[in-house]
Amino acid sequence: MTISDYISRQRRDKLAELRSQGIDPFSNRFKPSHTLAQIVEQYGSLSGPELEALGQIFKLAGRLILVREFGKATFCHIQDGSTRLQVYVQRQVVGGEAFKLFKKLDLGDTVGFEGTLFRTKTNELTLAAQDFLLLTKSLRPLPEKYHGLTDVERRYRQRYLDLIVNPSVREVFVKRAMIISLIRQFLDARGFLEVETPMMQPIPGGATARPFITHHGALDMDLYLRIAPELYLKRLVVGGFDRVYEINRNFRNEGLSIQHNPEFTMLEFYQAYATYEDLMTLTEELICHVAQNLLGTLRLTYQGTEIDLTPPWRRLDLRESLTATGGIPREVVYDWEALVAHALQAGVALRPGEGYGRALTKLFDLTVEAELQQPTFILGYPLETSPLSRKSDTDPELVDRFELFITGREMANAFSELNDPDDQRERFEKQMAAREAGDEEAHALDEDFIIALEHGMPPTAGEGIGIDRLVMLLTDSPSIRDVILFPQLRPSER
Question: Most exposed of 61, 407, 422, 441 (fewest Cβ within 10 Å)?
Answer without folding.
Answer: 422
